[in-house]
Structure formats: C-alpha cells, structure tokens
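Task: sequence in, structure out. Protein: Ubiquinone biosynthesis protein UbiH.
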Amino acid sequence: MADKRELLILGGGLVGMTLALAAARRGMASHVVDRADPAELTAEGYDARASAISTASWHLFENIGLAERLEADACPISSIAVTDAMRPGRIDFTPQPHEGTLGRMFANRTLRLALFEAAKAEKLIAWHSSATVTSRERGEHGVAVTLADGTRLEASLMIGAEGRGSPTREDAGIAVAKWDYRHRAIIAGLAHEKPHDNVAWEIFYPAGPFALLPLLDDEAGRHRSAMVWTVAEDDAPGVLALSDRGFAVEVEKAMHGIFGAVEVMGERSSWPLGFHHTATITAARLALVGDAAHGIHPIAGQGLNLGLRDVGALVEVLADGMRLGLDPGDAQLLRRYETWRGLDAFSVALATDGLTRIFGVPGKLPSAVRRLGMGAIQRLPQLKGWFMDEARGVSGKLPEMLKG
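Result:
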C-alpha cells in the first residue's frame, strides 16, 4: 500500500527542505524527492557560495528549531555599504541598536548540513535522495510520482522546489518570462588583511556589481569574506583562467584596498545569471516555491530569502485550511497562496532587475545621476529605514513563522 502524505516536495535543496521541516512543525507529513546525493552536496569545496539570511528568514529558522544549531556559525551583518565604483556619494545602511542586525551570513554548506541533520531526525519527513522522477501525476483526488526504481509516492499536494530549471514546472506547462543577462557571477572565498567589521559591501561597476559578504574569522584567525563578482559572460573565461595571485590582484583593484592584501581561499566557481518569473505559481494540486517560481539577479542577495517567504506563506495557508478540514490540494487554498506571494515576488524581481540595469549604464553622467540619488537617500532617514526593512524582510504581510 502506498505511503500517502500531505505533501510531495520535489527538490530537497535549501528551500525544499526548509519547507518540509516547516510543514512538519504544523503536523504535515511529506515526501521529499531529490536527485542529488546529500553527501556530495555537503562535501568540503563542493559549493563555495554563501547566503545572507534576513531577519525574517532567521525567525523562520528559529520557529523550526534550526537557529540554535546555526547560531555559532552566523556572521552578523551590521551594515551595508553601497557605492558606485567607490566614487563619492555612497550609502551606508546601518540600523539603530534596538533594530538588531541586517541579517546573518552563512556558508551554503553550513545551511545544508543543519537542514539535512534536522530532516533525518524528523519522523514526518520521508527523504528520497539520489532519486530520479520518471513520471508525475496530478488528479482530482491527489498527486503521485514514480521513481526510477519503481517506487510510487502519493500525496495531496505536489510542490515544485527544484530550482530554476524545475522539471515539475515544465511538466505542468506553466509559462515563464525569462532573459539572460549575459553576465556570470564568479564566486570565491577570500582571506584578507584587514577586518570587515561586519560590513557587507556592494560596489557597482558598469559590468556588474562586486559584492563582499562578511564571514566569521577562520580557526587560524584570518579575516574572511565571500565574494560575488559579476562580469560579462565573454570576460568570464579569462578571469577564471587567472592564477590565484593574478586573480587576487584583480580582486584587490576592484576592492580599492578596503580590506588590504587578499588571498583566495579554495576553488573559484561561476554561475550564469538570468531572470525568470512564472505567469502563475500554482496549478491544479501544484504549488511552486523558490527559484522554481522566480529567479532573480543576486544583486541584493534576496533570492533565498524570497523562497523562504514562499515557504512561510504556503505552510500558513495549508495549516489554516487543514484546521477547517480542507484538503492541502484544495483550489481555494492555492488561490490564497497565489494572491499572497505573486505580487511580492514580482515586485522584488522587478526591483532587482531595475537596479541591475540602472547601475549597468556606463559613463560619467549616468554615474553622477546615480550618485546624486544615492546622496539623497543617505540624507533621508525614513527612506533609508524603508530600504533596511526590505533588506531584513520585515515589510509587508509576513507569515507567522517569519515573525519574531
């Protein structure tokens, strides 16, 4: 007899596994299917990326029992410095002491380890790793998938959480608006001579932003940051081919020496950058979360946080419906999720796309205009406060799980 559960989550990455844990907190059982091997995903050096976890997302981790496990590895973001190629007119987003930090930085590996450990211990999660889905079914009374080994999994609601190339989204025929920025993000870990003082830097160049994200000092006491350097697609092969010393020299130039001498730690990696947004995030007995629904430029570090807001909203909608005796796949529950998340996700996507294009215009006059606007924001505390609330993820209608 098939093990039918409330949720069938296809994709067990950061968003998909957080969803399974959040749903379990509300009494919902799930199948989580992922084609990756968790041992590979958590291996040293597999993924050099780091993620900024907003205040609201941290509340979600608190509410699902992950915060205590993660706290020791968190590097607080006390301020964000935004500058146009290090010219005069920068903005400093620094909250008041009573407002706390702007977020916390974690290596993606750290987040995965914590999520996977919690998932293994949660009885309401059936985790099917290294598994390939060969067929998907969505019917009037439920959903199902068949795996390559012949296993059949059933549930009331199917959730696509596989990321940008979501086969579940494609299988459902959901239309996607997308374009390629012709940019590539080069990711590397840096050790540097001077401390970062918990400041995240966003240095905008016409070719793309250069971001420095603070990390905790390593065991040897070296100061560390995660770097995300956006370069034109045509330039990426040359940048990646540089020797470690040559690469460090170019990084120091882009940083204008703010952290002193730099050493590259570990392997460099790169990721193509594009935009996509679905026409809808639901269909019959189907919901999309995270990058399966919306892929944005990493310019503001909001991609993962946007997916975690999806998680909080979807779990709240489903839990509210089940208290009323509704099936998790009920159409009216999915409409509520669509209404709640559709506009917010689209607004953030448009904002990040707009920033990418505005700062990508070369020339002295566009730079002067940008810096004039940035100077105005720097002098207006209320406007700065609004931007900081957006960065912390505490604006708008928040799901209960994302509240402190």
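The radius of gyration is 21 Å.
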